[in-house]
Write a structure and sequence with these properties.
Elements (H helix, E strand, L loop, with lengths): L8 E4 L5 E6 L5 H10 L1 H4 L15 H13 L3 E8 L2 E12 L5 E8 L8 H16 L4 E6 L4 H9 L3 E12 L2 E11 H4 L4 H7 L7
Parallel strand pairs: 5-6
Antiparallel strand pairs: 1-2, 2-3, 3-4, 4-5, 6-8, 7-8
């Protein structure tokens, strides 16, 4: 898997934000910890938790873990940078190769920038990176039915609804149902999801 990481993706939207997807760095510690602290209540209903309590990893250990998993081809762990500051994360995780060649996308953006088109722009860029940069075949996104904002992101980008997964992930202290959405490289047929999003001015279905 040589050459999969590190990588950086710069995304520009028509009349909208310019964002950068890049790896988390040791020098991001203060900004990242402050961002997480400000958004704790905003994120806790939607973020995965571990039913078996674990120790909290130190920041540098977290960065090393991300880089190690990315170098092994199992993860693409991006932070989202907007106007020069960190505003969220966008990961492609659980990457499988061989006959599967796919992974799942997970993302969050800070409450103070929600609704500004950052999440769909970043997800479109991640899908293009997965298909045309990494050579993957499938990207899925699993969303709690109550998470209206995230449902809107996948709907805007034309992800296919593949149904409900019962008790799929441990979220906020309990096993939660999720709706599963997916796109394959065959769905795009060589086209760019990001360019389709741009061509519609960053709104509606692509």
């Amino acid at each position: 898997m040589t050459g999969l990481w590190p990588t950086q993706i710069t995304l520009r939207d028509v009349g909208g934000p310019t964002i950068v997807l890049r790896g988390l760095r040791p020098r991001d510690r203060q900004e990242w910890e402050s961002l997480r602290a400000r958004n704790r209540g905003w994120l806790s209903p939607w973020e995965a938790t571990n039913p078996v309590p674990q120790g909290v990893a130190r920041f540098r250990a977290l960065v090393r873990h991300y880089d190690r998993e990315a170098a092994a081809g199992r993860l693409q762990p991006f932070v989202i940078e907007f106007e020069g500051r960190l505003v969220g994360q966008m990961h492609l995780f659980g990457i499988g190769w061989g006959a599967a060649r796919g992974g799942a996308a997970g993302y969050w953006v800070s409450e103070d920038v929600a609704g500004r088109g950052i999440a769909p722009l970043a997800l479109a860029g991640l899908v293009d990176h997965a298909f045309y940069g990494l050579g993957l075949h499938r990207v899925e996104v699993n969303v709690r039915p109550e998470n209206v904002a995230s449902l809107r992101v996948v709907e805007k980008l034309g992800f296919r609804d593949e149904g409900l997964r019962r008790a799929y992930l441990h979220i906020d202290g309990a096993w939660r149902d999720h709706r599963s959405f997916a796109l394959t490289a065959l769905d795009l047929d060589g086209a760019s999801l990001l360019e389709a999003w741009r061509s519609r001015g960053g709104s509606g279905r692509v």
